[in-house]
Amino acid sequence: MEGVDSKMRVLVTGGSGLVGKAIERVVKEEGGAREGEEWIFLSSKDANLMDAAETKALFQKHRPTHVIHLAALVGGLFKNMRQNLDFWRNNLYINDNVLQTAHEFGVVKVVSCLSTCIFPDKTTYPIDETMIHNGPPHESNFGYAYAKRMIDVHNRACFEQYGRRYTAVIPTNVFGPHDNFNIEDGHVLPGLMHKTYIAQKEGKALHVWGSGTPLRQFIYSLDLARLFIWVLREYDEVEPIILSVGEEDEVSIKQAAEAVVNAFGFKGQVVFDTSKADGQFKKTASNAKLRKYLPDFKFTPFDKAIKETCDWFVANYDIARK
Q1: Per the database record, which ranges form the NAD-dependent epimerase/dehydratase domain (predicted)?
Q2: Is 93 a catalytic residue?
Q3: pTM
């Protein structure tokens, strides 16, 4: 099945999600694609990747030479806490089907997407790429975390047995246009944006879940998209690579909420509801490996990226996932 033609044909699973849409924008609007390349963005409507036969039919149809694997069951803290078994099983099936089918079809390179929540809960900081398997993840999302860790195990075994250079990236907290702005099940920033929008519209106080003290590194989806394309083209290691702003750019949830409030021009009261869980206090990640490769990469300033995302949400409120 290998060597049918030399043209690069990139299949993006989860192409309708936050990161997939950002990659599509970079490829189509920022000149990210090179001449002669074909980029195919797929969503869950195209195939159920938990089904091996459907996954195979998808590869048969599109014959990709490269795959960016973003498809996953994802959710915020509270959804993970409720559905750890679903997160474990669904993601395990999806990942195994995509990686095994890619190998069977002679795909040259697969870049999968992990998450910093896969790292051990009890660890030293900053965390780096060598520490993924050093202990249990945080109990709030162990199902998702272990399923994602297995991608790294699969990639290493596939390289050892077949010489495949399949790898994975580990972004910190991603946000941007096309995010899931669901208040109950979304991640912290899009949830905050939606709540601020409603509070402003109704003239009520903004209630932020938790104490506001946890720390996070946030990466704008468009910055992540540019880095994803670089990894696909240039990064030759099987070992994963953390894609993140630096440790010095870590912000508290309180600071993130303030950035959202400023972007909306919200003038109401802001209340921190400490009866709600905070989740992990910090997951500070080192981007030293990324900086070794790309010392001059410029990340979009946090406040600017927040403003662009809030503006997108307001302009696309009726069609945004929420």
Answers
A1: 10-246
A2: no
A3: 0.91
